[in-house]
Each structure stands twice: as C-alpha cells, then as structure tokens.
Amino acid sequence: MLKKLLHMLLSGFLLFSVNQLTAQSKSDFIQYHTNDEIQQILKKYTNRKTTLHTIAESPGGNAVTVLEIGSDLKDVPAIFVGANFEGNVPLATEGALYLAKMLLDSAAYTQKVKWYIMPQPNPDAATGYFTDVKYGRTVNDYPVNNDADDALNEDGFDDLNGDGFITQMRIKDPEGTYIISKDNALVMKKADTKKGERGEYKIYSEGIDNDEDGQYNEDGEGGINVGIAFPHLFPRAQSEAGMYAGQTPEVYGIMRFIYDHPEIAMVYTIGSSNFCIEPPVGGRKGDANLDKIKIPNRYGRMFGIDVSRTYTMEEVIEMFKANVPAEMEITPSVVAGMVGLGAAVNPLDDDLIFYKKFSEEYKKFLEEKNFNLETLPPSPAKDGSFELWAYYHLGVPSFSMNLFSIPKEKVEKKDDNEVPSENKEEERESEISEKDKALFAYSEKEWEDSGFVKWEKVNHPKLGQIEVGGFIPYLETTPKAEKIEELVGAQIPWLLQLSNKLPDITIEDYKITQKGSGIYTLELFVANNGELGYPISIGQRNNQPAPVIIVLNGDVELLQGKNRTPLGSVGAHQIRKLTWLIKTTPAPPNVTVKIESVVFKNEVKQINIGG
Amino acid sequence: MVRYIVLFIIITSISFAAKAADEAKIEVPLRFDRYYSYNDVIKALEALHKAFPELTTLEAIGKSEENRDIYALTINNTKTGDELNKPGVYVDGNIHGNEIQAGEVCLYYANMLLTKYGKNEKITNAVDRNTHYIIPVVNVDGRYHFFADGNTPSSNRSIRIPKDDDHDGLYDEDGPDDLDGDGNICQMRIKDPNGNYKVDSEDPRILVRVKPGEKGEYTLLGYEGIDNDNDGQFNEDAEGYLDPNRNWGYDWMPPYVQQGAGNFPLSGVGLKAINDFIASRPNIIVGYAFHNTGGMWLRAPAAKTIQLIKSDVTAFDVIGKEALKITPGYVYKPSFELYPTYGDFTSHLFFNHGAYGLVGELFMRSQETYKNDDKGVKEDDLESLRGNTQTARSREQLQFNDNVAQGELYKDWKPFNHPVYGPIEIGGWVKMSSRLPHPFMLQDLVHRNASVVLLSAENTPDIKMQVFNVKEIDKDLFRVRVRVENTNGLSSMTAQAVKDKLYVQDHLKVSGGKVVAGGKITNLRLNKVNYKQTKPEVQFFAMPGHSMVEYEFIIEGKGNVSFHYFSQKAKNAVASVKL
Question: Which parts of the sequence are annotated with region: Disordered (chain A) (predicted)?
Fold first, then answer.
C-alpha cells in the first residue's frame, strides 16, 4: 500500500517535471543532431551521478558512447537503452537523448535503477542524414568491397537530378518489366503478363554504373550495418552484415560492454521495430519443439532410453535426473545442451504473456494521450538486430520502440445500403498498396506534397534520356523536426513506466520449526515483487542472466541444504521457498541469510533460531 | 582452502613434469626429446630468430587474459620477395592448454625450415617461395598452467576467462586440487566393502567393475580434489570453461547451444589478436591448427548442414589424401564427422579469411604397445581381437609404461589422508601421458606432422602466364592470346571466397593498349570466345588447383602491352608482348 502511494507520488512528480522540461529545454528537441552535437549534449548531461563511457570507435573515427545515469548506485538492476542501430532513424537518437534528459530532470526513476543510454551506436551511418545527398545510409565506413572487383566503394549512388535525394530512375526499355500504374501515374508496377500487360520500363536506384560492370550502385561507401551485425540469426549472406558478428568495432564494443555489466536486467531498443506494441513474432522454422524432443543415440544407450519416440521437456528432465548424481541440477538449459536442441529462434510462450499484457497497457497509455495508433505497422525486428540479440542471447526482457509510423489513410466508410456496383473496373483491387497510399497522403498533408519526387526527365551520361522520381529517403522514419518533441514526449515516458516492472527480489518471510535435539527446519520465502519473472523464460533456457544466490551464514551445521543456494527462477509476483535442516550446537545461535546478486539489492536478514 | 592443505603436505617426490622443465640449454638446432614450457617456447623462438635474423621476424602479436605475450614467428626470405606477395602458410598449435605437443610440431616446423635452408632443396624452395606464419602456442595461459599446476591429461583446456560453471555466483572456485603436490591430478579411490570396483586379477593397479552380486573393494571418488566451495560437488567449477576453439566468428552459437562458446565471438582477447594478425596477412592460403589427440586430419565444414563447393573439396583432398601417407594410422575427414561444432577456428579461417584450414589431431595412444605382434594394429581392431577389451588394453598400457616408458607415465596408488574422506588412495595416469607421446616418441610425431605442413606449402598456388599467340587481324589491331596456369594443387582463391565476395577477386588486367574486346576462350580449336560485355581489359576469375585457362584480347594500338594476374593469395604473374 505504501509502495503504491509512493509510486503515485513519484509519477505525479514526474509529470510535473516533464512539463517543466518542455518549458525549459525546448532548444534540445527541435532539430536532429549531428554526431558532434550529440557528444556535446552528452557531455552537458554529465554530472556527479553520471559517467560517459566511450566503448568503441567506429571505422570512420567516431566515438560510440554510453551515458551511465546512476553511477552512484550499487546493487541495483540496470536498463540498457540503445537507439538508431541502423543509423537511418535519427528520431530514435533524439528519443534516447530525451529519455536521458527526463532521467536527469527527475530523480523518480533513478532511485532503484541504473541506466545505460547509447544514443548513437552507428555514427558513421548516421552522418548520412546530414549530407547534401541523402539515400538513407545504414552502413559504417568499414572497408567492404561489395562487388569484389579491383576497386573499393567505386560505384555508389549519383544524384542525377541534383535534388539532394537518391530516388529511382526509370528507363524505357523493350526488355523492361514495369509499367505505369493505371491508378496512380506516379507508381510503377510490375507488368502482369497473365493479363497481357507488356513491360515498358526498367527500374534502378538513381545512379550511374560508375565501374561499368553492368550493375548500378552496387559498391557505394562502406560498410557494415551495425543494426544487423549481432550474433542472433546473424545474416551472413547479406553483405551489409559483414562476415561475422562483431567484425566491426561498434558491435564488438557494445557486446563487450554489456557482458561486462551483468547487472543489466532489461534492454530497450529505439529504432524501427516495436515490441512495446507488437510482441516479437514467432513461427520461424527450425526452432526446437520442446514437446517432441528426440534423444540422441548415445544418451539412449547410456541411460537406457527408447530413442524411437519423442519426449516432452519435463519427461526428459525426469529421465536424466534418474541417471545423474543427485547433486547435478538438470534444467531445461542443461537438457538443451545435452540433446542438442539448438538455438531458440521463436519467443517462448511464457514470455509472450508479459509482452501481450504490457502491449495492452501501452496502447491504453497512448490512447489516454490521444496518440494516433492508426498507423502503418512497425517493421519486424531484423535478423542480426540488437533487440533480438538482447532477448535471445542475454535472456532479458527486450523492448523496442519506433517513435514514428506513417498514419494510415482514412478509408471512407462504405454506406451499408449501397447497392453493389456493376462496374467491375471500380470493384477491382487497387494497384496501389496501402503503404503507398498512406505515404502519398502523408506527403501531401505533412510535406506539402514534396515526399515524392515526381518523375522528371534527366539526361543520363550513359543511358541517355531517363526519368528520375520516387519517395524521398527518410520519409517513412523521419518526420519534420518540429514534430520531435511531441512524438518523443508522448511515447518515451512509457519506457520509464516499464522500468517499474523490473523483477524485485526480496526476503518475504521465514519459518522455523523445532525438530528437537537442537535440530531445526528453516524455511525461507523469497519473493519477486516485480511484474517480470527473474529470469524470464528465455533466460531460464539460455542460463545467461546472473544468478541470485541465497547465502546462509552462522555457526551451525547444515544437515540438508547448502551455504550458497542458487535461487533458481521466480515468476512475477511469485514466492520461492528454500529449506534447510539445521543442527545447532550447543546453544541456539543466530544465522543470517543474504540475497547475493549482481542485479538486486544484497539484503541481509538476521534469523534467531529457536528464539 | 587448498593452499592451506598444500602447505601441510610434505612434497617428497619429484615429478616427471619438474624434471622435464629442467632439461638442457635451449639452442639451435632445437631438441625434440623434451617438452617446452611456455617460457621455454619463447626461449626457443628467440634462439631461432637469433640464429636466422635474415629469414625471421619474431613479434608478440597480442596479450592473453593473464597478460602473457602471444608470439608469432614469420619465416620469409625477403631477398625473394615481400612477405605479402607470397602465398602464406599459417601454422598454430596448443589452442587447448593441455595439447602441448602441438606447440612442439610448430617449433619443429620452424626449426626444420631454418636449419635445412640452403641444404635441402625442397625446404629451400618452401622458404623462398612462401611466407610461413607460426604461432606455436595460442593458449599461452593454458600452456603455462599445464606445466605449473596440477593437471590431468585433459584438464586446463580453457582460456582464462572466469566462468561460473555451477551457477552459484562464484567464479572458478572449485577446480581439482593437487592434494599430494606432485604436479598431477590423478584419481582418488577409497576402500569400500560396498564399492562397485575391485582390483584386476592380473594388475592390481587396474580397477574393474564388480559383477551384480559380487562384493566390491573400492569406490572411485573421481579426480583429486576437495569440495572447495562446500556445495557437495567436487571440482565442478574449474578455470573457464571457455573453449578457445568454439569462440571464432564463423557459425558461432551462444554457450547454451555450444558449450564453451564464450559470451560472443572472439571474446577471448588473445584469439581476437590472432584473428587481427591473420586478417592483416591476406596472403594466407592454407592454415593448420594442431591439437591432440586421435590421429586425424580434419577439414571444414564443422556442421553437416554446411556444404562446400566441389573444387574446394578437391583442393582439400590434394593435401588430406597425401597427408594420410605421411602419417600412418591417421584418418582424413570433414570435422563434423568427428562431432559437429560451432565457432571453430578452421571454419573461421576457411570462410572468413579464405584459407584452406585443417586440424591435425596429434598422437594415437594405440602406438603405446607392449606385445610381439605389432603391425600398427588400430585400436578398434585390437578390441575385436581380445575379450575384455578395456581391461586388456589397460594392462598393455601399463606394461608399456613399466617397460618402455620406465614408469614415467603412471603413478601407483598411494595412501593419502583426505580432509573430508579420511584415508584414501591417489594414483593413475600423470598429466604428461595418455594424450601426449612419451618424449622418446616425440621426434617421429613432430617430423611427420611438420612434413604435412611442408606438403601444403609445396601445393600453394603457383601462377604461370604466357602470351602464346599474337595475330594482326587489321591495321594496328591485334588478337593476343594468353594462357594462365596454376601448376599446384591448391586454388589461387577458394571457390567459397569467390562465392561470398570475400575480397578482391583474382583478375587479369591488360595495360598498354586499348582493349576492344576480350574474354575467355571456351574452345581454342573452334575459336570460340566468351567476350565480356564491359571493361574487357579486366577479367575476373580464379585458378583452381592444377588448372589452365586461355583468354583472348583484341587490342588496338602499338607498342608494349602487359598482362598482370593479380591475386591476393598467389604470387602475381606478369607477361608482356610488343605489338
């Protein structure tokens, strides 16, 4: 009850301070910031309770920095926040800076949680938003010879019409496969040969075949895309991922930093996917079916198990337990390793429960602010992305957020009484995708119709007369700067709310039962008062999150139980009981029990046995 | 805790390991009737470098987790060309801390190349034509501790990144303990009328399982040690475990999928340094990583699901199939056939550095024989020949120890007062046994295996090029035909590297005239040419082992025209003609 009251007070305080922030610091969030400006802001944010860590230098010589907020805190869980890993979502960087500012302006969320905020993990690519010619750069300056020819970065895009944007070019060609859509003359669609349509145009990205190899723009500047270069489902076949995870120093430095800080118990990613609204998707092939586990022959022989049938995880645990020394703990993670279940590639069912629950809460949170949820869906998380790696490899709750999506075009409601039209032409499906419709409408409404470069004739140095046109880069992800404050102000506070859901491990109670002759049973009840389990299900599978150990000290003999007992997993709002059989000699002394953990407060409780 | 116990122990016996470390002075030529400690390896490398300063570069290329230097010896005759312009041969060993004879193979290879340079034609050619990169000890901390600490033949493989194996919040707190202080971690056994072991009727050092209903004499208590963390388990959280051969970037999987993987690819700082060393030597075309044990040549891939391109398998076979003849008893196979792994070194070398990577699993224990019918019978055959195979094999191994190795490989059971168990016995195979040949067998092992490395050096690509036909087809218009040949068995660029666009593809470049058309001759007799559409003056391709191609160029102009074959791994070739 007290806790709830305190919580209300804190939230109230926060609201107040956010309003204050809006008034005070308008200057910070009315523009997108360059790398230098970001570093200046971060330096401005440092005080005696913050530390600015430089964790890597990009191939282009830019620093990758992490702002630690709460350097003075010990024994508290930490949240790591990374933004704009692909470098082409400058709004995400602003969101991370805004979050840092909120945390510095109000003490409400920095009492029990430490924060690590990394606003610009891909600084080389992020420069792409500020260059004279924009194409939506995602790669850093790592030298990659994409076409393996005798020159590096020799065939990038070329701004043929000089408008500062790389769009598309269309070329009339008898071998072309595209035609102009009947529904919208700006849109090119694939000719449908089944309908007797014949292609008229070829389409390429805007540029010249600078190296004359028959391909357009296949070897531009860079590089590796930091946002797809982490080791979960590392997409080696994509040249922008590099050859292996961590090849590029930003990714290596980030992984090193995070594993050096095992107190990180939750990870936020601000970018283009949104686990806050859409839980991570499953259905990927190749994931182990935990209800149909096959036992390898060697364990079949060793343990006398019938290998011709399959077993559930519970069955396998029971069979293995019967065959190994009693003190050897058989967990799902041990089984997975022994029978070679392979990597988890789909979110575990138990984890989807909290993802769905929090998603509903978040939608309500936004609705109360009248925030438009009728937008195009967020992008799914990519293979090799930071947010997937955080969930699957670190085994912690991983929440992502995209701060802007294109509003859906409002469909005019059909009159229910309308007589079905006889005109087939009107009934046929539009050739324009919902996404394109939304983009055109958004361009018209918010960008004075300049979001699409209308096809214009250009003289191409090699191809002769062609036309250049298309949606401009960054249109989908990057609204006008005057929208930044409104967007981040509405959504970022949810990340603070989510921090309240962290697991919270405390000693709830204990019970002593006298057995006689100085022998006692000690039962200890350890509670998780948070809204997230510790570890969550994937953390139990990969055994990565730091353990919580209950340490019992005192001048007693343990007939059963250990001095150091791993707590194991405790679900949200659940209690776990640990039991010891204790012999005291000669007089009943005190013992202490302690929660020992790099994540949670190291609470110590004195227990007077027999007293 | 263990320190206190060790303090109470009076060390009476001088261990085999201690004796080995006191061997004679280290000088060139190096001796191979001994094992070199980590410090000895450095001394040996320094001695080689000092004796052959013109041919060698010795450098510390990085530090280990415990701040030890990792050394690389580069052998190159600078008079015959720059290091990076020659096909590179890479050799390392001892990535697993206990697999020490791998380091001796590397030292032997260096010693052989240097001491026989100018005396032996084959070796002289290899030194002149190739650059040899030799890292005898990858896991420097592991080698140091294998000699310095008590170990089993199989312990101390890890690199020294502490890991909480038993998940109790403490790191590396309960490894085995050398209770009797002899430098070995042996077995512990306790007299127990209810035990499930009894002594063998022929050799009481051997314990055999009792039959159901039979009375036992002993219970085996596992490896020498105490329960340092008092959790009811013995020796369950030793150093690491981070397997340095599961921590590489290609096809890496996290620790819950691949035991010992480490937290992320190349999290081991020494391994990262070695990776950077290799990355900055893009001329490396073949590489060896020596391990023990079993007698195997293992090639990529390490997982069944990964398919190699046929021409790469052919190149591997050129080495692998010949290697079998040099090392009798070995088998040659893809490494997944031994067992599948993720994040292994040779796959990383092959897929991410474009070099043919092979593992040499040194030593077959079946060579420890004591019988009169030895015709190099394999262990499998021995088993079928005899009844109770395990016991029979143990008896023979002990007789080998007694009569051939003069008792240096095995410690007889001796009483010991264990702090928890009370009176027990400690005994068994010493650390310098089982996976390591006795030093008297070392010379043969290092020589044969180093000869396989030399075989690969001989097979590194050698590109030869000639203009074989020039015809004036019009005024100042010439048809020039060029032949390119790779006379050796390894490709100038792996087919996998071409497919993955790993680096600049090998190419033939014409300079001097205006190339109007050019392409590969597909049928010389019928004058069929597959002309390249654009930029005919640069032709991209690569040369598989033992291959030949012909190209045709239609060139406008007069004067000198030259043809360059550029290859990152093979030595570049040039030909020219005056039109």
Answer: 412-432
Partner residue facing B265 (CB), from A149, A246, A564: A246
* Coil, strand or helix at B270: helix
Q: Are residues B320 and B351 in the same domain?
A: yes
Range B343-347 average pLDDT: 98
Separation of alpha carbons A178 and A119, rounded Å: 41
Q: What is the DSSP string of A143-181?
A: ---TT-SSSSS-B----TT-SSB--EEEEE-TT--EEE-
Is B36 within the bounds of a domain? yes
Residue identified by tokens 């020494």 is B270
Same domain, B480 and B455: no
Q: Is the pLDDT of residue A334 over 90?
A: no
Write down all domains in chain A, each with its CATH number in brackets: 30-129+225-284+346-406+479-499 (3.40.630.10), 146-221+434-475 (no CATH), 293-339 (no CATH), 505-608 (2.60.40.10)
CA-nearest residue to A538 within chain B is: B256
Q: Kindly state whether residue B212 falls inside one of the protein's structural domains.
A: no
Cα B219–Cα B224–Cα B230 angle in degrees, nearest 5 = 90
Per-residue pLDDT tens over the stretch B272-311: 999 999 999 999 999 999 999 999 999 999 999 999 999 9
Rounded to a whole number of angstroms, the CA Rg of chain B reads: 28
Q: What is the pTM of this model?
A: 0.93
Q: What CATH number is associated with residue B486?
A: 2.60.40.10
Residues of B serving a catalytic function are 368
Q: Which residues pair with A254 in a beta bridge?
A: none
Instruction: Mark which of B397, B426, B459 sits at the end of a domain.
Output: B459
Chain B residues with CB under 8 Å of A246 CB are 249, 264-266
Q: Same domain for B259 and B312?
A: yes
ipTM: 0.93
Q: How high is the mean pLDDT of chain A? A: 91
Same domain, B283 and B320: yes
Chosen from A328, A394, A564, A597 to mutate, greatest number of chain B CBs within 10 A: A564
List Cβ neighbours of A76 (8 Å cut-off, separation of 6 or more). Answer: A70, A112, A113, A114, A263, A600, A601
For A255, the closest chain B residue by CA position comes to: B264
Q: Which residue has the higher pLDDT, A58 or B387?
A: A58
